[in-house]
Amino acid sequence: MASAISGSGVNGALNVTVTSDLSETAIVYLRKNASLPPTSTNTITIDGKGFKLTSTGNDAALILDGISYVTLKNLTIEKKTTSLDQKGIQFMNNAQYNTIDKCNIEFASLASGTTSSASGGAYIVFSQSATTMASAGTAPAGSYNTVQNCTMKTTNSNSPGPYAAIYDYGSSSWSSSTPSNNTIKGNTIENFYYFGIYNYYTNGEQYINNDISRANATSNNAYSATYLMYSYYTRSTNRSTMYEGNNFHDLPYKNATSSYSSTVYGIYAYYNYGTAANNFKLKDNTFQNIECGSTSYFGYCYYNYYANYDGNTVRNWNSNGTSSYLYGWYMYYQYNDHTFKNNVITECNTKYYTYFVYCYYGDKKIFTNNKITNNTTAQGSTGYTYCFYIYYPSSSAVNIFEDNVLDSNDFGCYVYGTYLYYWNGKYNRNRITNNRIYNPTYGSPYGYIYSMYIYYFFNLQCNNNLVANNLGYYGVLGLYCYSGNSGSYKAEFNQNTIKIDGKKSSYAVPLRLRFIRLSLLPSKG
Predict the structure, then answer these.
(1) Would you say the pTM of this structure is higher than 0.70?
(2) Which of 86, 191, 397, 406 has the fewest CB neighbours in a 10 Å radius?
(3) DSSP 17-28
(4) Strands, DSSP E only, in 81-148?
(5) How far apart are CA 285 and CA 283, in angstroms?
(6) CA 265, 269, 275: angle at the middle one, nearest 5?
């Protein structure tokens, strides 16, 4: 069938129904016929009817090679070889407008030790070489393709999984201006060794509503540094590069109690170029039941443009190293409008220094409606906690920090609820309540809670904030502001409520303000 399509082409819509299991020792190619290629009306639909294609050779089981308008559905593809270089389905030579739907891709005999190089294989691959995953040409390997509702897993006992679940490899020669616009959505991925999603030099790729875990593993045989998502030098020409609604969970394996991955990245996002019309988006993703033994990041985000972090939830992310930092959302030099809103961090645990949200330099900041609740930090150590750490955003922009909540957290030592440094803009309607310094596994917990710490600000509007029922071991400072910046700047403080019970603290200060060459507007409350 594949050779007939490639050799003769099609002159009308073609429907193929698989009637039995198949076994192949070589790659099955679906190639475009130059004279009679498939079109939007002369489509090819292959219905696997639940039957199995078993591939016992190296490389991919099936390659869509330059062909378009093919739908493959209801087929199980089983890779059955101990070779590391295994692939399920591959797109190459700009295969376009194809759909892979409701297929199972199973690696049945993957070697026990998976390499940390790209020769370790993947379930879905976009690459210009049939033998090398890390290969790109002057055009996309595939564009406008959809992979949806598929299950990708290993079936041999406690397999480490392939190098990556999805491996999408492009090039700077085309990605800066040519959309690839592939969509990966609604899939279930149950094992990988190094990367869940690997997205490299592409344009407009979207990963939506996928469930990604290591559910097939029963021990930590993943690579020491694990990336749930890797997004590198992407563009958004006519639609956003987007990661939306994905559920990442159970790393390094379900109910792990020891032997954790050393370093974990929820997403590694480096030089992603969004636009004002098409932001680079991380939206409504969930990261839960993540165990790590050393430094970890919810998001390690460097030099992104028009970045929009919206509605993501981190739950039960546990940093178990007694001398390891948790950097949480680590956002470094985010350019143009940088939006961080509706995100939740809850039920997470750390044992050392903790930054839940770390934002360093960059352009305008819009931080609204975020919640950090019911977490436990720096247990068994004297590590500091910074819940919101925002350092020197653009002083020419009106930055916004509004309607954020910090509630019912236990901090092991000194804590800064909000730490804003060289801030220019609005700080309104935030709530910092019911937090305490508590560290039962350390001899004598100590430290202050700096609820609202705003240092070296320029213009500041600070209204309608609530600070109440926080308990520091030495004391609680409700609002601590200092500015020594020269210039004609104004500060406004209206209708803030600060309630502190200092009975259990040796030093409790509701309000401390210090201004140098600054105009303070009259307060109304």
Answers:
(1) yes
(2) 397
(3) E--S-EEESS-E
(4) 86-92, 95-96, 99-101, 104-107, 122-126, 142-143, 146-148
(5) 6
(6) 155
